[in-house]
Amino acid sequence: MKNEETDNPRRNGEGLENPSRRTLLRGGVAAAGGAALAAGLAARGAGAAISQHADPLITDVQDWNRYPGDGVDARPYGLPSQYEKDVVRRDVPWLTADSKSSVNFTPLHELDGIITPNGLCFERHHGGIAEINPVDHRLMINGLVDNELVFTMEDLKRFPRENRVYFLECAANSGMEWRGSQLNGCQFTHGMVHNVMYTGIRVRDLLNEAGVKPEGKWVLAEGADPSLMTRSIPIEKMMDDCMVAFKMNGEALREEQGYPIRLVVPGWEGNMWIKWLRRFEVGDQPWQQREETSKYTDLLADGQARRFTWEMDVKSVITNPSPQAPITHGKGQTVITGLAWSGRGKIARVDVSLDGGRNWQEARIDGPSLDKSVHRFYFDFDWDGSELLIQSRAMDEQGFIQPSKDELRAARGTNSIYHNNGIQTWYIKQDGSAENVEVSS
Ligand code: MTE
Ligand code: CO
Q1: By CB distance 3.0 to 4.6 Å, which of 89, 178, 242, 340 could disulfide with 347?
Q2: Across the strands, what pairs with 231?
Q3: Candidate of 132, 255, 271 to mutate for ligand 1, largest count of ligand atoms within 8 Å of Cβ
Q4: Burial letters for 287-313: b for 16+ Cβ neighbours within 10 Å, e otherwise?
Q5: Ligand 1: does its nearest atom lie under 6 Å from the Cβ of 177?
């Protein structure tokens, strides 16, 4: 969907100078929102009676009905319908100086279910996309091991395989929203997350093949792209559930996602999921100087920094309706839907509020509930056409609950751009349009 506001860098730039895009008082819509709460499904349902419609789309023969279409040889690699051409990743040009060290965003408002299609997974890379012929690719293990080893792709595929669905979220997701509501669409506020099924092998099997020495406590993972991205990861995590993946959603990794292999670090921040993976070095401590780990610490208000904040906190967002996906059908039967996820396990529960967090009702989770994977939730209600302040709040199986943005700022200040898992509010107007706002109590 074209959205003037989000597609126009200048207007977004203006928003930056005035970070609090809009703060609404909860009281404003409370009465109307409250009225919608108790109602059952509407008298006005979702269909139209046949007798009232002499609809030519029903009564007349259409072109697609009359002429034969493309044959089976026309689309050797299938693409979405031409009518879905606006369903694409988008970037925000003013966000970074150069598109080769930048990010684009998953169009969450256009998707459903829990799996992100490969061509729509957001991309984050620091030196552009490396194009590697798998025949020329190697994975090396060196450092504190009994046998330093080099694997070809063929070697890697001889280890036992696993299939796992995991979300990957960049630690900077929602980072622009720390100081106030900023970007007008969940694609931009929350779109640095994707969720696919990985096929790959266990890192544990590779490390065991090399034989980690007792002093080996950390593993440096290194990428083959020009950014020479490296990250230090504790050996316990690597031995627990990390994977070297070569497929996503059944087919080869996309080049953007690290073809031919990437590291999968379930539940942990995206920057550790090294793409174009070419080396593991086992050491006795993290390689902090070398890799500017300091960039991925969270500076608190008092000047102290949180470090090793690897696990992604419980989080959720309503994807529809949202600024890029307004309600266009008028009042009556309405579906609210969104995504919830946690780096600490499964999602136990999602609540939805229609009145800026005064009243909450439990949403329905539908689809697979998997460990460290996104969950899809729905909230079906009868919209009376009045203004709403819609929010979702997730709780994970360990009992962590998503905080309000005010609670988050009280705890962490506003110095960091990382790990913003605060509750998102969309202001739904009477015409069904939606705006990114914050509520203050
Ligand atoms: N790996 C390499 N080699 N180079 C990179 O620039 N970026 C990291 C990580 N792995 C990066 C990398 C960051 S910050 C994130 S959030 C994820 O990859 C993004 O993964 P994606 O592009 O599949 O969404
Ligand atoms: Co990142």
Answers
A1: 340
A2: 221
A3: 271
A4: beeebebeebebbeeeeeeeeebbbbb
A5: no
The domain tally of the chain equals: 2
CA 114, CA 368: separation in Å to the nearest integer? 8
* Residue 124 Cβ contacting ligand 1 at under 6 Å: yes
- In terms of domains, do 241 and 351 share one? no
| 316 shares its domain with 290 | no
- Report the amino acid identity of residue 353: S
Only one residue has tokens 């003013």, namely 94
% of the chain exceeding 70 in pLDDT: 87
Boundaries of domain holding 386: 14-37+311-440
Give the angle subtended at the CA of 117 by the CAs of 189 and 437, to the nearest 5°.
15
Tokens standing for residue 147: 């046998």
Residue 70 belongs to some domain of the structure: no
231 close to ligand 1 (CB < 6 Angstrom): no
Regarding the beta carbon of 123 and ligand 1, being less than 6 Å apart is answered: yes
Q: Are residues 220 and 282 in the same domain?
A: yes
| Cα of 387 from ligand 2 centre, angstroms | 35
The ligand 1 atom at the shortest distance from the C-alpha of residue 257 is 23
285/191 same-domain check: yes
Nearest CA to ligand 1 atom 13: 271
Q: Which of 296, 329, 357 is the last residue of a domain?
A: 296
* CATH number for 393: 2.60.40.650
270 lines ligand 1 (CB under 6 A): yes
Q: Over the stretch 223-249, which tens digit does the pLDDT of each residue have?
A: 999 988 899 999 999 999 999 999 999
Cα of 247 vs centre of ligand 2, distance in Å, is: 20
Percentage of residues of the chain with pLDDT beyond 90:
76
